Task: structure prediction
Amino acid sequence: MATLSKSDFQLASDCTKKLIYKKQGYPTTNDTNEYMEMLAQGGYVVGTMATLLYPDGIEITGNTSEAVQKTLDYLQHENAVLFEPAIMTTNQKLCRIDILVKQGNTIQIIEVKAKSHNSEDTPADSVKKLKKYIEDVAYQYHVFHECFPNYSVQCFLLTPDKSKRTTIDGLAGWFSIKNEKSNNTLIDIEELPAQLKPKFNKPEVVFHYENDVNKAAYVEQLLNEGILDYLDVTQKVLEIQPSITASANQFVRILENGILESDYCISKKCKSCEFNSGEVLPNGYVECWGNKANTKPHVFDLYHGGSVGHYTKGFYLDELISKNKTSLYDVDFERLKTTKGEISSRAQRQIIQIQYTKTKEEWISDELKVLSNSYEYPLHFIDFETYTGALPFYEGMRPYELISFQWSCHTINYPGADPIHSEWFQENINCFPNFEFALALKKQIGTTGTPFMWATHENTVLRTISKQMEIFDYENNELYEWLIGITTDKELNRQGRLVDMNKLTLNHYFHPEMKGKTSIKKVLPAIWNNNSYLHSIPYFSQYVAKDFEGVIIDPYDTLTAGIDFENTDEEIVKGGTAAMRAYNKILFDNSINNNQKSELKHQLLRYCELDTMAMVIIGYHWGIH
Result:
């Protein structure tokens, strides 16, 4: 019989059929999920930091049966601290506990997570935000209690505390990930519970002061001035034990006897199924949905479809699915209305999507033409690259506090002028960059003209920097007033200068190839691929490229041009996750040389420049140029 691990329990809690697909080794989209793998690596770093707080801890190694036996042996001791101990019940429920502390008859189960909490939150808020992780601990408690019912067990989450500001400068640089290709320790990454198989090498986390004569002093700093904090979740774990036990027993029964049709159902949740592996077979999503999976255009393409249906409180999609209606055209416009019988702005967008998908036409509102002629010059199209991570880079920072390390700007000084590109990249890696970032942007944009962004990220970043000025005692009234003037704050009813092109898209533009999406990486190819006149404009021509069949390719795919894939282990920067990873490597990865770091910087600059050029291309098509 197969074991029910903690990651199995987590996956089955989302959908029991996924448990079957995982055990049968079906391919998943998680196998190439760079963002989640990055989070997992951050989790290993935090995990290593946590173990340093227990210098007498013993790591339990070996295969499952060996680890279970070693754990049993150590539990015979009066006191013990164990890392990754394995507990297995007679019916194959299995868990590996991050840190187990035994003191006589008292056990502490400590789950280490890179996900942060805020010790200044109310207990209720903390529980709500960490619900998923508390359920993880609850499963571990269930397994341990089933094996050892006579122990008194306390449960804790050990996570970065967002209320703490570290006094350690360069804390993130104290650790690094060392990926050894010869490492044969294949593991489940908890953040990726539905992997094809445990195929990722467990990364070795290097603590740079491990062999330092002053190691104890560094560890003491981590304890007193670091970022980790305990959250006692024992009470909540005990409260949810009945439901955890019932679910665990159901999952064991499925593994023993097979899954029943009554154990699962298809629903709107299936839209994000990891087992929808596209053309790679077997495809679990297609197996569940049958012919309904291949409907085009699919109801899952609907903009904000999961919240449709005032009669059923957002479950209209489930109602359609239950009736085998999975076409976008099956949506009843009456069901898009609010409870007051009104067509909201969201419903208007949904209706436009359905109508213009059916006619296969582009839609541009009449208002957009008016708006396009109303913006004050110069026009500035801006994009930022930022980093947030569990471990602060600089003294005074909190976990996951924002770092702004790069911006790109294309400026059009007057109607019909060629766009002029400017950019900024953090040069001094030893200093907190946000204020220099903002000063350089202020110099470029000034107080006149119209700055454009895509979505609200840039507004959020600049608002954050304005708040950081007070926190870090950075005095510059002129900069502060500029930040206040350019940003919007809904809570203070303040309207800033920044214009959101994503909002313009929602209100004024649609192309069927976008489906229900409005991200720049959906809007750009829809416009670029269907308007060849853009390709002849000189300053757009560098992005004109075709594949082997002569089809125009997405401009973002031109970022890979000239890359020698056979002779590089580096990822290509063509997305936000890759940008964050590249920035981290430039600052802290001593395993790559300066030439490699220069190449990463070059890729970051090209990627950010394309983001703002994409805005220029889209704006040009709309008449903003």
